[in-house]
Amino acid sequence: MYAMSSSSSTTSYVVVKQENEANSQVPIVNMAPIPAYKRRRNEKPGKGLRHFAMRVCEKVRSKMVTTYNEVADELVAEYPEGSNAEQYDQKNVRRRVYDALNVLMAMNIISKEKKEIKWIGLPVTSFQEPSTLSQEREDIMARLNEKQAILEELIVQQVTFKQLVEKNKKYEQIHGQPSSASVLSLPFIAIKADPGTVIDCSISQDKKEYLFGFSNSYEIVEDMDLLKSMNLSLGLNTGSSTAEQLEQAKACVPKKLHEFLSRIAIESSALDVVDEQPTKKFKSS
């Protein structure tokens, strides 16, 4: 027998040639038995980590709240002494339980806080996924529609405020700057009541709180509603905007919002906003 060796930068090996195969004897190697935890999965199907993970999952799910020792003790008790003791010894079972718990925690099926283990739930199945995605889509669309309505209202307010500024500029050019007593600052509210209504108003010393008492019913009109009634919104809130007014409105907002202006004008013309959003009325207090 002789041996040849070859080597490279990455590997090295030895080639052995037998001169007299007839007289050669194959040495007998005394192999030690392979421990149970090192055996291949196909030797004991269903009895590996996957099997213990399922058993541990069932235990935690039935208890909802438990501990490692409680689960391990119950699983050890399920394998009596003398039945495959080599594979199901207590240390092996407890180690399998520990590994299974780590797998379940990694999958977010259970949670662990100190020694307490809590059941969270199994992942969404393929049968539940369509209905869950459908519900998520409905929720997203509802939030999207709500945000779009808020954006459209802010656009109308922007146009209204810009038109108010232009109106005040034109007034100052003709009549000069008004006196401070005739200037009404934003924001404000207006209270509308019948001519015979008696109004009692109390003001705090710091003039930050006002208490009103009315002898008859009254209405509260917000500043934006009042400005819209002066047609400063260019008809966007009522759907009566002309092509000229729509171009005026586009000059009041960035170019990226022009498509929203056209949409607002179309939607407002299809809905009677005045009837759907009546002025709030209050009884006397």
Automatic annotation (TrEMBL):
Renumbered to this chain, the signal peptide range is none
Similarity-based family: Belongs to the E2F/DP family.
Could you tell me the Gene Ontology terms of the biological process aspect for this record? Answer: regulation of cell cycle
Domain (Transcription factor DP C-terminal) spans: 128-272
Q: What is this protein called?
A: Transcription factor Dp-1
Q: Which GO terms describe its molecular function?
A: DNA-binding transcription factor activity, RNA polymerase II-specific; RNA polymerase II transcription regulatory region sequence-specific DNA binding
Question: Taxonomically, which superkingdom?
Answer: Eukaryota
Q: Which UniProt keywords apply?
A: DNA-binding, Nucleus, Transcription, Transcription regulation
Q: Name one Pfam family in it.
A: WHD_E2F_TDP
Respond yes or no to whether keyword Transcription is given for this record: yes
Concerning InterPro entries, the annotation shows: E2F-DP_heterodim, E2F_WHTH_DNA-bd_dom, TF_DP_C_sf, Transc_factor_DP_C, Transcrpt_fac_DP, WH-like_DNA-bd_sf, WH_DNA-bd_sf
Subcellular location(s): the record lists: Nucleus
Q: Which GO terms describe its cellular component?
A: nucleus; transcription regulator complex
Q: Does the keyword rRNA-binding apply?
A: no
Ranges of residues in domain E2F/DP family winged-helix DNA-binding:
44-121
| Annotated source species | Sipha flava (yellow sugarcane aphid)
